[in-house]
Write a structure and sequence with these properties.
single chain; N-utilizing Substance Protein B Homolog, Chain A; 3 domains; 23 helices; binds S-adenosylmethionine
């Protein structure tokens, strides 16, 4: 593999400030920021929310709380259901959302499509499922739903291990109805991981089980949770021993750190024991979010910081990227203030922002973004062109591409973005235009973003890896023919997996001797560049999402 070194390391996008504001419209002040139509932040972190109905409500609910009830998406009786004031609404919503996620009805994105923890549709869904109404969620409830749903999903394997060990027998556990299991998981999570006052947790979850299911379900929850409290208080929670052969050890670690066994085995193989454990600990932590100020609207980081201060959202500036800010809490407040919906900023991880630094977009360039939707990188690339040049954004997914187009308008970069709905492989065959720079942000396992995508670990299978690798090879081949001689191909993923990253590039270079590796050094801080010249963002080392990118120059 040939590595081309740069004589003059470049400052990754930092130099932009020299040109940016003379080329932009006047800096805008933020207008009224409390609109109800909120942009989906989930789209920008690469998730969507599917709508499927749960097959049937788990059971008729307790007669004390409900009147006659029909099920169906537009249930006309839902308004007549009685309001239950005994059950804590965040628990009721969390239990239903968890059940829906597990049955494939939604992703565990921290924000739903309304940009709020629970929009009207979700509340109607909760009513239909439980058979009663709860009071509306306030901001504190929304935060609790986010925390409980994210944490309970992440810790699912470990929580189930505890629940199983406290059930009479395995059949009781395996045959448990879905809602009951979710209520137990929530209770276990609150007691074991959130360390909440245990008897309050027991009471609340027992009440939910009684009202939403039946008195017997409440008794079962009571019995199991009380056993758990005793074990916790005596410090004797059952924990698998890490011993035996490789497989047995991986199984134990998978339970303790709550990940699928195949992932643990893969990480032990590629990273070693210690690093694999550190990675799992990272994946189980509450994520930090990054916001990128949208300079295309004349909205700089200083303006974003001013708004965050007004909103009392704690924040830190990114040490790596000019326009980025980090926030640990307060995303709901940012959303409700309309900053995302109105296009003043985007949710974008710094690890993804640094991929744009590696593309190093310059005004006047023609850039092809091959797998562009929902557009996080497209928008950032476009904002670096200052109205000169073009980003052609191709994606196979029409719905996600629609989001990209709408967001480009909001961000005021539509004049430099052309969206094309196509399979890249067909596009490459039929399109004879070549580009200065081609970014292939390939579909991948997402193994670098498990802390943000709490449910992803349970949805990925080992078999997916082979299919993804084959697709990545095909897309790389297609992308390569669209690069001008002397132009640049950037291959990136949000994975930390060697086989999706270095190995794909190595195999590409064998098939395409016309490309050589160009080091990422000088485009991103040195600490992100491996010896082979590739960009690596390592969650454990950099406390950001995992990501990879390679700069490949077409020499002829
Ligand atoms: C990792 S996501 C891209 C994220 C995007 N670059 C961003 O920053 O927001 C991968 C994208 O590849 C698209 N994709 C998958 N197969 C494709 C194909 N054959 N042709 C074009 N796009 C494809 C998916 O629809 C998905 O939107």
């Amino acid at each position: 593999m040939k590595v081309q070194q740069h004589p003059h390391p470049r400052n990754y996008l930092a130099n932009r400030s020299k040109i940016e504001f003379s080329m932009l419209p006047q800096a805008l002040s933020v207008p009224v920021l409390n609109s109800s139509q909120l942009l989906s932040a989930s789209a920008l972190i690469g998730t969507t929310t599917k709508r499927v109905m749960l097959a049937k409500k788990t059971r008729q609910s307790n007669s004390a709380t409900t009147s006659t009830r029909k099920t169906g998406p537009f249930n006309p009786t839902s308004k007549t259901q009685k309001l239950n004031v005994e059950v804590s609404p965040h628990r009721a919503v969390s239990a239903v959302r968890l059940m829906r996620i597990e049955l494939g009805g939604a992703f565990a994105d921290l924000l739903n499509e309304q940009g709020k923890g629970s929009g009207d549709n979700e509340m109607r869904y909760v009513e239909r499922t439980l058979g009663f109404r709860t009071r509306d969620l306030d901001d504190r409830d929304l935060r609790l739903v986010t925390d409980i749903v994210g944490g309970t999903i992440r810790w699912r394997r470990y929580l189930d291990h505890l629940i199983l060990s406290l059930c009479h027998d395995e059949d009781t556990f395996r045959g448990m109805e879905p809602l009951l299991l979710q209520i137990l998981r929530i209770g276990f999570y609150e007691i074991v991981k959130l360390e909440m006052p245990p008897y309050a947790v027991v009471d609340e979850n027992v009440r939910l089980a009684k009202v939403a299911l039946r008195p017997g379900a409440g008794n079962l929850v009571n019995g199991i949770l009380r056993k758990l409290v005793l074990l916790k208080e005596s410090n004797t929670l059952p924990s698998p021993k890490v011993e035996g052969d490789d497989r047995q050890q991986a199984r134990a670690l998978a339970t303790i750190y709550s990940h699928p066994v195949w992932m643990v085995r893969r990480w032990i193989k590629f990273l070693g024991h210690e690093e694999a454990i550190r990675l799992m600990i990272w994946n189980n932590r509450d994520p930090t979010f990054n916001l990128r100020a949208n300079i295309s609207k004349g909205f700089r980081r200083a303006d974003l910081i001013e708004q965050l201060e007004k909103l009392k959202v704690p924040h830190d500036i990114s040490p790596h990227l000019d326009d980025f800010v980090r926030i640990k809490t307060g995303m709901q407040i940012v959303i409700q203030a309309g900053l995302l919906k109105d296009g003043f900023c985007s949710v974008q991880d710094e690890s993804a922002g640094l991929v744009v630094s590696i593309v190093d977009p310059q005004p006047g360039e023609s850039i092809l973004d091959c797998c562009a939707a929902p557009g996080g990188k497209t928008l950032f690339l476009a904002s670096c062109l200052y109205g000169k040049g073009m980003v052609t954004a191709v994606d196979i997914n029409k719905g996600r591409l629609r989001i990209l187009k709408e967001t480009a308008k909001k961000h005021q970069v539509q004049n430099v973005v052309t969206a094309v709905h196509a399979d890249l492989r067909t596009f490459a065959e039929n399109n004879h235009v070549m580009y200065d720079k081609v970014l292939l942000d390939a579909p991948c396992s997402g193994l670098g973003v498990l802390s943000k995508r709490a449910d992803l670990r349970w949805n990925r299978r080992l078999e997916d890896m082979e299919q993804l690798k084959a697709l990545q090879d095909e897309l790389l081949d297609s992308a390569s023919v669209l690069v001008k001689p002397g132009g640049l191909l950037i291959y990136s993923t949000c994975s930390i997996d060697l086989e999706e990253n270095e190995q794909r590039v190595a195999s590409f270079l064998l098939r395409h001797p016309e490309f050589v590796v160009d080091t990422a050094d000088g485009y991103v801080p040195h600490e992100f560049v491996a010896e082979n010249g590739f960009y690596h963002c390592n969650p454990v080392k950099h406390s950001l999402d995992g990501a990879f990118a390679a700069r490949l120059i077409r020499s002829y």
